[in-house]
Batch of 3 targets.
Target 1
Amino acid sequence: MWDIMEDMVSGKIIAEAMKRNKRNLTPAEAEKLETISGDMFTAVQVAVRSSPLVQRFYRESLEYAERHGSGSPRIIAPWQAQAERQMHVWAMTQPQTTLSPDVIYAMGKRGMKSDNPIRMALILQMQSAQVYLLRKEIIRLLNKMPIPRHVIGPNIMPYPLMYITPEYSLSVATSSEEEQSPLDCDYMLLQASPEGVNVTMPSAQRVNPALEDVRQTINCVGIEFNKVWPDDFEKPDSVRFILAILAFLNSPFVASEPTKITRNVRRQFKREGWNDPNLLTNVVTLRRSVHNGSNSGNTEPLERHNRWWVSGHIRAQWYPSLKAHKLIWIAPHIKGPEDKPVKKKTYVVVR
């Protein structure tokens, strides 16, 4: 029984892993796994409801909904990202949250009495993952960046488990059925496996801050290594934003320093009896790039009469040892001799 749980949590959860382990659970194993998951759900619900972090986020969500009529506050602070993650962990224990057939197939429902053990595995992944916060300026940049054709290699994940929360809900297709009408997606759970990257995403047609009224469906998509994007993908747009995120995080111009919850927030929670668990959130920001404009090649340098701006873009860097590309985001920068003026451009906007 536990080897199956380890498979689900460690990343061996896609079809190839299922082929290697086709044994169904015995009735006794299924019953025990059901009891364990039920006990875990109870513990999760108690922990989340008693968390000052979640309580403060819940209060602010209600106040926001009262002022604006609907919706939820933007996630701009590390403590908010951590609180929202815990609320989604809580939602995973609720019947209002449903698992799509793709998730059940990918996780491997081998003789289980219900999908509760699959939910338990997802909760463990969410609680173990590195948390990343994407603010609106980063999201806008990622949406604009074109992705070059490339071979997806096994070096794209900074961590084996990553929980990515955006400042606001993203309108992305979290399943093939949503290609034409994407729904709100509040987070992305990325998990590295030997075969590729497994991405779990929720979708919700309406947003309500009340814990008792969360409506969402959990979907998943797989990004297999050694596949060519976009040629080998039937729906390439469904993974474009994810590939852009990973390319961005692999760039030397991007910082994602682990950030603690601010001291004043920690003090407030400590007064309420909360033991600081030293939660860290990776807030993604841009570094200031430095380019000297010199020619690093061995050829005779061209004579330049001015300097010019190079727009930010994603480059597909080929790694011969891996026989795959690694996407790297190149920040906007100025090229050309430092003693020359910057060439001005006039942009004509056509409606």
Target 2
Amino acid sequence: MVQPRKISDFKPLITNLAQTSHYQVIFGGLSYSLRGHLSYRGINANFIAEDVGLLCSSAVLPGSSFGTADIVGNYTGVVEKFAHTRLFTQIDLEFYVDNSYRSLKFLEHWMEFISFGSGVSPSRDGYFFRMRYPTEYKTDTTKIIKFDRDYNKQLEYTFYGLFPIGLNATPVSYTNSDILKATASFNFDRYVCGKTTSYAVYSGTSNNKEQINKPPVLNGNETTTGDVWRPISAGAAGAGGVRWYQGNQTEAIVKDQLYTTPRPEIRERRI
């Protein structure tokens, strides 16, 4: 039953909406041969890892859909639909072009590398294109990270098998000057929503899982106690590992040993 509500009831929800202008694009995982091809064109590793993402003036968070099949006959008069393939839509990224044209050359020569398998000079008569193997031009750790001005929460997308599939024509004109921009379309095999680093998996925050107070996973077996466990400082734990203690105990470190009252069991995990 619908009932009237006070503005104060939903004001905290409406006044805490995410904004579109806070995000970061990070290109990573380019193959050695691709990095070398770009380096010869003046696109060094620092520009790829740090600067080109900052020059991305417009991006999109990816979407997906399912390919489906209709099943007829299981139930009289009913047509059922089942998913059989997950489909990913390509994304468009727009870049500011710096006065050295590095962002435009980054896109242009990445696409050139894909079709440069012949190894013949492009200026020769009868030049032909030969595509390289996908493992040479696809990247597996390119990310788009969406956050807000308070940096409290973030949403991370990691793309696997990403590569540029199209570079739009870039208009120039004698009319009023404006910032030059280049737009490219990228295709990818799949993406993962949420953090994918080994630390995120270890801490239980990968794939958008909420971090909870739980003991660490030790030797593949997760302990079941409900107490809050905290790591001992690196100096006290010694080299080569991290030891954990129950956070509700009183602690003291004497001669590189941890003492508590009562003294809990000390567990060790190599990381």
Target 3
Amino acid sequence: MYKIPEFIGPFKDILPNFINYQRSLGYDYQKPTVLRFKELDNFLSKYGYCKIEMTREMYDLWIAKKGNETHTNQGRRCSAFTTLAKYLISIGYDNIFLPTPINNKMWKSNFVPYIFSSDEITKIFRVADKIVNTSHVDTPTFVIMLATLYTCGLRISELLNIKLQNINFTTGAIQILNSKNHENRLIVASDSLRKKLIEYHSNYTCPINVEYFFRTTDGTQVPYGTFKTLYHRTLALAQIPKKDNCRYKYPRVHDLRHTFAVHSLAKIISDGYDTYTLLPLLSKFLGHKHITETEYYLRFTEENYDSVKTLTNNIYHGVFPKMGDDNE
């Protein structure tokens, strides 16, 4: 846990308690978030604020755009101010300006994730095993990581942190531990992926002193940067187009997770199931803390259904375990 720094402004005695309180609720207040509040503390000191108050004037000055910074970064400052304001109100302080959704909505990102088509997914997996390894991660390791990431809809951090003891090779169950907001969950790999995991494990016997299931040739955890480099090489070889008018050169690794969610919902809709009945199941599978996070994908899928419904062709054969299995 990142150490709480010393604060010097008017909230110097409140901020440590606030950070500890947020952590007790399960929020991941590590270095980037803690330093955001240290930045706020320095800001208050710099501009001579000495009372325990949060005003509209203070808010406007705090979120004012700095040079060429992105809306996302402004949004983070807005979020920090709002979260602290709610805390101060909850413990009884007056004279606290609480930004409303109207105040905040201008900082919401209009970023649209890249959703891969079925043809693009097929191309990616056709060329993945042709990537020349120069990074201490052999090709079979990269391919099985890529397959697990997409077919299970994982966050990249969740994939990298999977350990041998987290996988039940009989049932296909995989434990995802200490994920976002310190949440744990259990997912079930498709039977086809389960067999691939068994094959990978039998060919790459894990030494007793090696902790992670997916590892480098040195037996260490695969670095995110290494995986991302191999992923970008794969996209280039598969001739996935570079993104125009975007700060990202290629679709992000995280876009595979977005694609999984949209493809899953498109499949649910095309099969005639009640989306709002199955949405909580998908939400749990994805590890969302609130179902509203999953509803974002539902809105995206419904609004773009005519263009999305063809994305699921031939993707889902063997991806999801059958309901009612003896091993479920």
